[in-house]
């Protein structure tokens, strides 16, 4: 199984151990989604982002990932350059980037290598999410929950300290909600950080930050 | 570097399957090359005079075919986001995408182009130069085409937009390559045209990825 020790990376890489969002504001399509949003996340902490549809949860996650520009405010990673921090975080959202015509194995293998993971990590991740019997299927044959598990397996296969999760639980059944809860707990125990946009409570202890529309 | 190796393999496989891949590009190419004698008339002299030029223009058109999906699929399904979350600069990722595009369409088309030109009546002695020009031209088409594909991300009917953006940029390689081939056939100095074609391809490789990366970032944010 996947343990905290795997968070260590090769020499020269600086791990991020802090996320600070300071008075952030985001404007999308001319509409101000929110402003003055601040959050401090230290190693081992998780935060649930809540708020109604359209309140900017996904945009905030994408801003942390460096994909969306802030209108105002600042996002810091404890002194690590934001360009370097991009290689230290995982983003799992509705658009999972999995190609329908490729097999689960091909996709997991590519994203593992792209994320800097190892073959052993890939194997462990497939086992942890019980994907082994599904690996030879094309992604299009997977159910929504299986597909989400494949997307989540990529995070375990290439360990990175910060997880940005957009509704990670929604397609998962009750058993896998618990199973993923255990995986999240292990990530946090190993010094990881989680920022998750959710409607249902996360199965781990979190702080929460509400965005209002 | 294992990251880039994995990316080259992924991009080539995806490009190979994109819009039918090389077979569709080759089929389209053969189709355009067959249309010309039907439209212009079967007289051998007349066809032979335009054979290399026609093969060259058909090559430029066939290179347009699968450009549309080069970035769009990754953009739509979220893979482009994840490709950005990496220590690999986006510019390098874009360069690899173009290499994949070239391997899947440019290289097979380059193999087919001497065949098409000779079938239209060009002298077989021209075949090596046609192949070389098509290889170089294919590089230029892939890298310049990538710019158009990245710029039209998020637009409705992006494929048409890509073609409109890219066709004017295809003009210089078409002129240089076509000129070199015509000069060679006429016994005139031809190396200058090939050199210009090479220079254009080199510039496209050098600057194309910068433009593509900027366009992708803009489309995502």
Description:
The complex is a heterodimer of chains A (213) and B (221). The longest helix of chain A is centred in the last third of the chain and has 16 residues, at 174-189. Chain A has a five-stranded parallel beta sheet, with helices on both faces. Chain A is globular. Chain A is built from six helices and eight strands. Chain A is an alpha/beta fold and 213 residues long. In chain A, β1 (18-28) and β2 form a beta hairpin. Chain B has 221 residues and is mainly alpha-helical. Chain B contains nine helices and no strands. Chains A and B meet through β5 and α3 of A and α1, α4 and α5 of B.
Characteristic terms for this protein:
heterodimer, A: 213 residues, alpha/beta, Rossmann fold, five-stranded parallel β-sheet, three-stranded antiparallel β-sheet, 24% strand, disordered N terminus, B: 221 residues, mainly alpha
Fold blueprint:
The complex is a heterodimer of chains A (213) and B (221).
Chain A: E1 18-28, E2 31-42, E3 46-50, H1 57-64, E4 72-76, H2 82-85, E5 89-92, H3 104-115, H4 119-128, H5 144-157, E6 162-166, H6 174-189, E7 193-197, E8 207-210
Chain B: H1 2-17, H2 21-40, H3 44-64, H4 69-77, H5 79-84, H6 90-119, H7 127-151, H8 158-185, H9 191-220
* CATH class value of chain A: Alpha Beta
| Number of strand segments of chain B | 0
Biggest protein-protein interface?
Answer: A-B, 28 and 26 residues
What percentage of the residues of chain B does DSSP assign to strands (E)? under 5%
- Estimate the helix proportion of chain B, in percent: over 70%
Main sheet properties of chain A: 5 strands, parallel
**CATH level-3 fold name of chain A:** Rossmann fold
Give the count of helical stretches of chain B.
9
User: N- to C-terminal separation of chain B?
Assistant: 29 Å
Instruction: Outline the low-pLDDT stretches of chain A.
Output: 1-6, 8-12
Number of spatially distinct domains of chain B: 1
The number of helices of chain A is 6
């Amino acid at each position: 199984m996947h343990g905290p020790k795997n968070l260590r990376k090769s020499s020269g890489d600086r791990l991020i151990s802090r996320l600070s969002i300071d008075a952030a504001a985001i404007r999308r399509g001319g509409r101000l989604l929110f402003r003055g949003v601040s959050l401090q996340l230290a190693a081992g902490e998780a935060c649930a982002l809540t708020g109604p549809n359209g309140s900017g949860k996904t945009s905030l996650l994408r801003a942390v990932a460096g994909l969306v520009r802030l209108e105002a405010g600042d996002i810091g990673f404890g002194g690590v350059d934001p360009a370097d921090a991009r290689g230290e975080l995982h983003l799992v959202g509705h658009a999972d980037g999995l190609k329908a015509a490729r097999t689960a194995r091909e996709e997991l293998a590519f994203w593992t290598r792209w994320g800097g993971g190892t073959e052993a990590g890939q194997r462990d991740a497939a086992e942890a999410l019980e994907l082994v019997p599904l690996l030879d299927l094309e992604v299009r044959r997977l159910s929504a929950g299986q597909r989400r598990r494949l997307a989540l397996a990529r995070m375990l296969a290439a360990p990175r300290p910060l997880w940005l999760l957009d509704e990670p639980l929604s397609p998962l059944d009750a058993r896998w909600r618990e199973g993923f809860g255990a995986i999240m707990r292990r990530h946090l125990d190993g010094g990881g950080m989680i920022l998750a946009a959710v409607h249902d409570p996360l199965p781990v202890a979190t702080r929460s930050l509400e965005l209002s529309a | 570097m294992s990251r880039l190796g994995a990316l080259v393999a992924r991009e080539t496989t995806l490009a190979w399957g994109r819009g039918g891949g090389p077979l569709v590009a080759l089929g389209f190419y053969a189709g355009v090359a067959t249309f010309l004698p039907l439209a212009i008339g079967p007289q051998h002299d007349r066809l032979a005079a335009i054979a290399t030029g026609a093969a060259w223009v058909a090559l430029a058109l066939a290179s347009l075919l699968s450009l549309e999906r080069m970035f769009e699929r990754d953009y739509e399904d979220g893979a482009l986001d994840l490709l950005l979350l990496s220590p690999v600069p986006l510019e390098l990722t874009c360069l690899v995408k173009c290499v994949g595009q070239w391997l899947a369409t440019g290289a097979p088309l380059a193999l087919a182009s001497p065949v098409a030109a000779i079938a239209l009546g060009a002298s077989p002695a021209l075949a090596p130069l046609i192949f070389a020009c098509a290889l170089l031209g294919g590089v230029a088409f892939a890298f310049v085409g990538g710019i158009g594909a990245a710029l039209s991300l998020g637009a409705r009917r992006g494929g048409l937009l890509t073609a409109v953006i890219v066709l004017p940029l295809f003009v210089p390689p078409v002129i240089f390559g076509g000129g070199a081939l015509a000069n060679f056939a006429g016994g005139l100095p031809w190396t200058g045209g090939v050199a210009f074609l090479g220079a254009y391809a080199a510039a496209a490789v050098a600057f194309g990825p910068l433009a593509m990366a900027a366009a992708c970032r803009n489309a995502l944010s």
